[in-house]
Amino acid sequence: MESTITRPGVRRHKPASRRRRSALRLVALAVWLVAGQSAAQTAAQTAATAQAVAPPIRVGVLAYRGGDHANAAWEPTVRYLAERFPERGAEMVPLDLLGMDTAVQAGSVDFVLTNTGNYVELEARHGVTRIATLHSARAGASGAAIGSAVIVRADRSDIRELGDLRGRTVMAIDPDAFGGFQIAWGAMLEAGVDPYRDLRELRFSGFPVDRVAFAVGEGEVDAGILRACVLEELAAEGRVDAGRFRVLGGGASPGFGCALSTGLYPDWPLARLASTPEELAKAVVVALFQMPGDHPAAKAGGYDGWTVPLDYQPVHALFRSLRIGPYRSLREVSLVELAREHWEWLAAGALALLWWAVHSLRVEHLIKVRTAELRAANRDLRHEMAERRRAEETARERQKEMDHVARLSILGEMASNLAHELNQPLGAIANYARGCTRRLETGTAEPAQLAEITRAIAEQAERAGHIIARIRGFVRKRAARPEPMDLNEAVRAAILLCEPRARGDGVAIRPDLADGLPPVVADGVQIEQVVLNLIKNALDALEGAASGAPPITVRTGLDGEGRVEVAVADRGPGLTGDARSRLFDPFFTTKPDGMGLGLSICRTIVEAHGGHLWATDNQGEGTVMRFVLPAATGGQRIAGKEPRHAV
Ligand code: ADP
């Protein structure tokens, strides 16, 4: 690697004229001692002014291998200039790459002597201008003298050209070495091999450069990159055996004395800064052109004099293609370039993006449409639900009305019997009251007897009151109130209401009620209404039968599925063919004064309680009307013996 010098050292050369000036200053001092202070001051000021007017020529030199190496190589050249400009002198300012840039920018040097690559960069960045180029005796016809030699071991027949380096290990001097890497880099790219991408490994040896030759010789690496002529120099110095190596490409430039793998580029130039006076530049060029080829300064610098400045455009072209030096910024790949290189991927990406965008828009649109549809459906549903609720409410009201009417109708049919039923307690009350009056009038009224009579009167009045209360309870218009209840209770209440008529008809109603039935959740009045209706129909069926007709049985029990069942059986004429199929149709009746609503209402009531109502033939003759209701879940049995099954 190049050594780094952070603070440029300055070496001054005092030519004879300068030494003479110092002598003058000594003389002035003597005169001052002798002739007085004012005269001496004048002489000293004169000397100082001379120095201020002509400062030394400052030459910035690239010390790429450290200050000592730069001093050894270039100090003689600067000394040569100092001798050619005795009135000013010249001083060498060794600089590293960064120092060179800073010095040129600050204008702290007049000239720069630097390598080809650095010159191109300074030219682009700060406008320095080459005024002479180092001349090499080995240069080609164009005067250009720097190229690269890519060397392999002579026995490596598998590597013939630069293109064969793909997948190999290659060693170069330094990433910034012009001949020792960059020129070969450009040539390799032209051969289709990118050293940073296509090699197995790219190593940099740093200085001394003979490390590369040794690494290739030892087989440590497959190939090495050297500045052209270095191999020949090493061989001349006896440090390597040139016969062991082969230079790839075998290219040669007319007049160029060394083996080459690449084209040739101009050697180091001397360049002036934009601020350097034209006259001074001209004078320096003249001085350099007059340097003989065998001058010790040329020998020390490894060149053979100076020549007219060469064309550095090929160096610009190379750097541009490698995107280094002043063209480093081109490495930041532009979008256009990226697009050109990866257009297939970009096109695929763009298509995917387009598809995604279209898809998203479509999905969004569909969601909007569906949401609107759902909203409308929701609105309709709410409307429909409200309508249904209203309809249900109306139906419930109607049902209530119908139930009420049906109950009134049943009761109306039984009114005469009920009146007869009421007559009994009323008649008894009247009799008791008359007996009481008689006893009071005849004065035979024993208080104890009177008390018994009035108690009997009260009992009969209570009995009449119970009958009226039962009727009132039955016909009252009310909403259904389902609650756990004993079905037998409803059956008993219905029988009580029917009994007056049954007695009148000369028909017995025989209850056969199972004990220990589970409760059902039902509205007591509605169930009573159903049973009452079934008994009334049974009585109707027996109407006109000869007295001593078989009794109507009302049985309760459990069916096979644990439901509570009620069966009303009569020995009437049974169902006609028409009645069998239309029994539960509203307004179907076979009776002259019938409404045909009884059974239809009964079925609605039973089904509203989760039950079922149907008709079967009674064995022999007559009809059995049955209905079942589900037992209340978790309900206990109603106290008593085990319930009977299948009534
Ligand atoms: P209605 O009693 O006003 O006629 P229902 O709906 O109660 O109305 O009865 C409808 C019809 O069913 C009756 O007209 C009758 O023909 C028939 N029916 C009902 N119960 C019996 C029964 N136990 N025996 C024979 N027929 C019956």
What's the gist of this structure?
The chain is 50% helix and 14% strand. With 647 residues, the protein is α/β, with parallel strands linked by helices.
Can you walk me through this structure?
With 647 residues, the chain is an alpha/beta fold. It folds into five domains: 15-143 and 265-330, D-Maltodextrin-Binding Protein, domain 2 (3-Layer(aba) Sandwich), CATH 3.40.190; 148-247, Periplasmic binding protein-like II (D-Maltodextrin-Binding Protein, domain 2), CATH 3.40.190; 341-405; 414-477; 481-647, Heat Shock Protein 90, CATH 3.30.565. The protein contains 19 helices and 19 strands. The chain has helices at 16-35, 37-53, 67-84, 97-106, 116-126, 178-190, 210-217, 230-236, 278-289, 296-301, 313-322, 335-341, 343-413, 415-442, 447-475, 487-505, 524-542, 577-582, 598-608; strands at residues 11-13, 57-62, 90-95, 111-113, 129-134, 148-153, 169-172, 201-204, 223-227, 245-247, 269-272, 306-307, 483-485, 509-512, 520-522, 552-558, 564-569, 612-617, 623-629. A seven-stranded mixed sheet has the order 1-3-2-4-11-5-12, sandwiched between helices. A five-stranded mixed sheet has the order 8-7-9-6-10. Residues 1-51 have low confidence and may be disordered. The structure holds adenosine-5'-diphosphate. Adenosine-5'-diphosphate binds at residues 537-538, 541, 570, 572, 575, 579, 583, 588-591, 594-600, 623.
